[in-house]
Amino acid sequence: MPFISKAQELRKKNAELHAQMTALSIKAHDEDRELTAEDREQWDRMDAEYEGRLRTIKDHEKLEERERDMNALDKRRIGREDTPP
Fold first, then answer.
1. How much is the pLDDT for 76?
2. 78 versus 85: which is more confidently predicted?
3. 11/2 Cα distance (integer angstroms)
4. Where are the alpha helices (DSSP H) in 31-82?
5. Smallest Cα–Cα separation from 69: which of 80, 79, 61?
6. How far apart are CA 46 and CA 67, in angstroms?
7. Domain locations along the chain
8. What would the pLDDT profile of 38-84 be if each residue is shown by its tens digit?
9. How far apart are CA 46 and CA 40, in angstroms?
10. Cα–Cα distances in Å, from 8 out to 2, 11, 53, 61?
11. Could you tell me which residues belong to the region Disordered (predicted)?
């Protein structure tokens, strides 16, 4: 099922982004400071990318669920005399 593998691939990319965002936050904390303007810009860019991927992941999962529903429906129809081949 291609939608699952795509969703998993996108989750891995989000995990990498999360690690980068965490590192950025830890660095600022360790240096006892707030995020710099440059850090904030980078954080916001990564956050937007992360959120966009979440929407795409949900779309892929929805399609995968619908595909399963359609496959189940097709299996119920197989062998019924009132259903054309």
1. 72
2. 78
3. 14
4. 37-77
5. 61
6. 31
7. 2-75
8. 999 999 999 999 999 999 999 988 988 888 888 888 777 665 565 55
9. 10
10. 10, 5, 11, 10
11. 57-85
**pLDDT at position 3 over 60:** no
What's the pLDDT score for residue 30? 98
Structure tokens given for 1: 């099922």
Contacts of 34 (CB under 8 A, 6+ apart): 28
| Residue where the block lists tokens 């991927």 | 53
Is there a contact between 56 and 63 (Cβ–Cβ < 8 Å)?
Answer: no
The pTM of the full predicted model, rounded to 2 decimals, is 0.72
> What is the residue type of 76?
R
For the chain, give the number of residues: 85
Task: Take residue 33 and report the two structure tokens written for it.
Answer: 């400071």
Residue recorded with tokens 């982004």 = 17
Structure token pair of residue 43: 């954080």
Please give the single-letter amino acid code of residue 16. Answer: E
